[in-house]
Amino acid sequence: MPSADNMKQIFSFASLVILFLSLGAAGTSLGLLQANTNNGVYATCHFFISYTQAMNSSLVNYNVPTCKLSIASATIATICLALLTAIELISVSFKIYVKTFIAKIIQVVIFVGSILFLLITMIVVTTGWEKTCATYKNITRTGGTPGSVFNLDCNGPQYISDSYSSSIGPFPPNGAEIITAAVFAGVGVLLAAGALCVYIAQQLMYIRSNDESPYSRELNTNMENNDNDD
Question: DSSP string of the chain?
Answer without folding.
Answer: ---HHHHHHHHHHHHHHHHHHHHHHHHHHHHHHHHHHGGG-TT---SS--HHHHH-TT-----HHHHHHHHHHHHHHHHHHHHHHHHHHHHHHH-----SHHHHHHHHHHHHHHHHHHHHHHHHHHHHHHHHHHHHHHHHHTT--TT-S----TTS-EEEE-TTS-EEEEES--HHHHHHHHHHHHHHHHHHHHHHHHHHHHHHHHHHHHHTSHHHHHHHHHHHHHHHH-
